[in-house]
Amino acid sequence: MAARVAACTACHGEQGRAGADGYYPRLAGKPQDYLYQQLLHFRDGDRIYRPMTHLLAPLPDAYLYEIAGYFAAQHAPYPAPARGPASSSLLERGRMLTQQGDPARDVPACVACHGARLSGLAPAIPGLLGLPRDYIGAQIGSWRGDLRRAAEPDCMAEVSKRLTPEDVAAVAAWLSSLPVPEPYAPEAAASLTLPLACGSQTFPMPVAGGAQ
């Protein structure tokens, strides 16, 4: 499988550690179900990035699930956070939104779904640490602009559209400034009561022996 995913690691780095340019995210250690769903979304046009769609177009569901499993099993170390310029007020706003949300605008805290350690929630909610600032901002922006979609009900689309551009900048700055604790793994399924329904958590996986 390591040889078969060479097209992936050419951009996402050895073992899926992340691309050097800050745009291609880390794949290593993310939940298999989450990675599988992203591969499907790229292949089927729910997440728009033409090179990924072209690469995945001929691949069946079961094979994509194998690829997701390979990267989920990689546990390469995380680099230290690359702290960019950010004011103390921007970082504090990001911290507040991450830890407490904004109840007045019905914005849940990031930790409400991604866990107290921001390490994700099995089976399909990813961790948020170890990602570049620009990548985080771009992905939230993609949800806000309907360029990225997930299984319905799409909880991240709902939350993202409640955020202002200033909120997005603050959350991206705060999350990208944090070191990744070790061990860093998703919390157990059903260990959190989510503040809103997320279709990704109940998305069907391939049946054994072939695609659905």
Report on the architecture of this protein.
By secondary structure, the protein is mostly helical. The protein has two domains: 67 residues, Cytochrome c-like domain (Cytochrome Bc1 Complex, Chain D, domain 2, Orthogonal Bundle), CATH 1.10.760; 115 residues, Cytochrome c-like domain (Cytochrome Bc1 Complex, Chain D, domain 2, Orthogonal Bundle). The longest helix has 13 residues. 35% of the residues are buried.
Based on CA inertia axes, which overall geometry fits?
Answer: globular
According to CATH, the homologous superfamily of the largest domain is Cytochrome c-like domain
Q: How large, in whole angstroms, is the Cα Rg? A: 17 Å
Helix/strand/pairing class, anyone?
mainly alpha
Which fold name is given in CATH as the topology of the largest domain? Cytochrome Bc1 Complex, Chain D, domain 2
The portion of residues forming beta strands comes to under 5%
Q: Order of SSEs, N→C?
A: HHHHHHHHH
Helix content: 40-55%
Uncertain ranges: none
Average pLDDT taken over every residue: 93
> What is the β-strand count?
0
Instruction: Summarize the biggest pleated sheet.
Output: none
Instruction: List the domain count as a whole number.
Output: 2
Q: Architecture of the largest domain, CATH level 2?
A: Orthogonal Bundle
Individual helix count? 9
Distance between the termini: 21 Å
CATH class of the largest domain: Mainly Alpha
